[in-house]
Write a structure and sequence with these properties.
alpha+beta; Serine Threonine Protein Phosphatase 5, Tetratricopeptide repeat; Alpha-Beta Plaits; 29 helices; flat
């Protein structure tokens, strides 16, 4: 081995030890091009490739490591690598190849003396039985064997994983208290730093999944935030994308649709070459966002992409068909999905749509059956959100039966529960149900109050069709929507989004403490400039700002001041983060300090088109005069969810 290659390899090993994954990948990949690597070093290269989202490179390195271990007759270690390759192929939805690698691992370990590697095989078989086949009993049996082997050999990671897996299965079976206790015990081990980065990430992801499937959105949100902070500390590419999917889902429930869409789109970009299941889920979330806004074309395309990547786009696609007036098509979609799904918590996501669609088809018996099943699942799992969905379903059926008293009772209960969950879209829908129930009971005043609140809630969220429907019902009653609070009325403003480019790489390069200090400096600097130029900070998430200005000129002046301030700091002190900025003028509905609406979405999408150091401005945001900067020729850009192309220019601020 040459001296240069030896130094490169040693530096790569040290980078792996620091979890500096990008640096490790570059160094180990360079070393592999110069000299043959040992199986251990190939495993390190595969790990660095995995953490940085290079799944094909990861598989190639692992397959070479497997061959190396087989050549050295290290069968247990070869089996561990075979299991890792199997999981990689499952992530690519290449199940047959994944199954073949599992079979290879089983053959390698079949005649070996008792060893901890057999425990990891039992753990993998437990996951396959649970996630792949829905066989809870087999999953528990394999999980118990894995825990016994982990305990016998004192392998803390295997013990935590096996305990966590059994907890997930118990929750899915309906034994929520015992299952969550096991999940919590394993998650404490991950949080406390007892486990390796990979297994820590696995436990984070699975904990969030369990909470989300229980519809425990508050708990899922807490763990999602914790996982995001952990990913940033580890400078990981793949896991952040998976965390973004969870964050998008939680933000959608909480009513932060702009932020949910940004997270989901970033997840699609980050995961399409890394984990197709999560990428498909991100596309599905985009479809749900489009549905709630009434953008059926965008929703249809997102559901199509989710389906293409292997995710059944239900119940979203069925509800889309219903919104299009295709009741028969909606019924066929939802019934097929229910026919193919046996897991109770997964059926619980489908059953509310079955109730709504069956009622639209005047099939009261089918609606009652779906509502009854949903109610039973809610009682088994004890989730406020599931209970709220069951109450809403019962209220809808009572309305169809002209049973005003039952409809009122269930709608009021659903409203209270959705408020406790913190789901504003569902709250507004519960108000619509309650208004209809009040009308049956001849309580027109109560109906008007609920419709006014619903119309305001839908408008605040940007749920255009639902807001229109609520207003139409108010007009039919001879009432008008509640006068919009000045803090919530639609306003024409110039919107600016800022974003630090390649922030994850920065965290890795400078470390957690330095990153935190840099972020504080960045935030203070930008906020000072916002104040100088009359900007109104609407929102701040992570390393980006959303700011509103009275018109285009001060917004552009502020954007230029930001870039020049950062450039000056770079020249004087050697470093400053690189930022991209997008500016767009339009109308938005104000809610507190924040704004919502299609023009806000357009501004968010414009910034995403920018490169480091760029200022992109929609042509309509340019002032008629007094602009002191050169601009590029306009280019027409098609933005997702915006019906017409937007002309965008680049500001020459240097």
């Amino acid at each position: 081995m040459s001296h240069i290659a030896d130094d490169t390899l040693q530096a790569g090993r040290e980078a792996v030890g620091r979890h500096a994954w990008r640096e490790a990948y570059d160094l180990l990949d360079a070393a592999a091009a110069a000299v043959p690597l040992s199986p251990e070093d190939l495993e390190a290269l595969s790990a660095a490739a995995w953490w940085t989202g290079r799944l094909d490179s990861c598989i190639a390195a692992r397959e070479r490591a497997f061959a190396g271990y087989m050549g050295a007759e290290s069968r247990p270690r070869a089996a561990i690598v075979a299991m890792a390759v199997a999981k990689d192929y499952y992530a690519k939805r290449s199940s047959s190849i994944g199954n073949a690698w599992v079979a290879r691992a089983e053959r390698l370990l079949a005649d070996e003396p008792a060893c901890v590697e057999q425990g990891y095989l039992e753990r993998l078989l437990s996951v396959i039985a649970f996630e792949g086949n829905g066989d809870f009993e087999a999953a528990l049996t394999h999980g118990q064997r894995a825990l016994e082997i982990g305990t016998r050999f004192g392998d803390r990671e295997l013990q935590a994983l096996a305990l966590h897996d059994q907890g997930r299965v118990l929750v899915a079976k309906g034994d929520v208290a015992r299952g969550m206790a096991m999940i919590d015990e394993a998650t404490v081990a991950a949080v406390s730093g007892e486990l390796s980065p990979y297994h820590t990430g696995v436990i984070y992801c699975n904990t969030i999944t369990a909470c989300k499937e229980l519809a425990d959105y508050r708990r899922a949100g807490d763990w999602t935030d914790a996982a995001k902070r952990w990913c940033e500390r580890q400078a990981i590419a793949g896991f952040p994308g998976m965390c973004r999917v969870y964050r998008a889902s939680i933000m959608l429930v909480r009513g932060a649709w702009v932020e949910a869409e940004v997270e989901a789109r970033l997840a699609c970009d980050e995961l399409v070459e890394f984990n197709l299941s999560y990428a498909a889920e991100a596309f599905y979330e985009l479809g749900e966002i489009g549905m709630r806004r009434g953008d059926l074309a965008t929703a249809h395309e997102a559901f199509r992409q989710a389906h293409e990547l292997g995710r059944d786009p239900q119940p979203g696609l069925a509800l889309l068909r219903l919104a299009e007036g295709k009741t028969d098509g909606a019924s066929a979609c939802i019934e097929q999905a229910l026919d193919e799904e046996s897991r109770a918590l997964h059926r619980a996501r489908l059953l509310p749509a079955q109730v709504e669609i069956a009622l639209a088809a005047a099939d009261l018996a089918k609606a009652r059956a779906a509502a009854g099943e949903l109610d039973a699942i809610a009682k088994t799992y004890g989730s406020d959100a599931l209970d709220a969905a069951a109450c809403s379903a019962r209220s809808m059926i009572a309305l169809a039966e002209d049973d005003g008293r039952e409809a009122v009772q269930n709608a009021r209960h659903a409203l209270r529960l959705w408020q406790e969950v913190g789901a504003p879209f569902e709250v507004a829908h519960a108000r619509m149900l309650l208004a209809s129930a009040y009308l049956i009971e001849d309580n027109a005043d109560g109906a008007v109050l609920e419709l006014q609140a619903a119309a305001t809630g839908f408008a605040r969220l940007g749920a255009v069709p639902d807001s229109r429907h609520a207003r139409e019902q108010l007009e039919a009653l001879g009432a008008t929507p509640t006068a919009i609070n000045p803090a919530e009325k639609k306003q024409t403003r110039t919107f600016m989004f800022t974003d630090i480019v390649r922030s994850t790489s920065l965290v890795e390069a400078i470390g957690d403490e330095a990153w935190a200090a840099l972020l504080r400096w960045h935030d203070e600097t930008l906020r000072r400039l916002f104040a100088v130029h009359g900007g109104d900070e609407a929102n701040h998430t992570g390393d980006g700002f959303f700011v509103a200005f009275d018109d285009g000129l001060p917004a552009i002046d502020c954007a230029v001041a930001i870039q020049r301030t950062l450039a000056d700091h770079r020249r004087q002190h050697g470093f400053a983060p690189e930022v991209r900025i997008g500016v767009h003028v339009g109308s938005g509905t104000r809610s507190g300090r924040n704004y919502h609406g299609k023009d806000v979405h357009a501004a968010a999408r414009i910034v995403a088109l920018g490169e480091a150091g760029e200022i992109l401005v929609s042509r309509t945001a340019l002032p008629d005069s007094q602009l002191r900067y050169d601009v590029s020729e306009p280019r027409s850009i098609a933005l997702k969810g915006v019906s017409r192309p937007v002309e965008v220019v680049r500001i020459d601020w240097r």
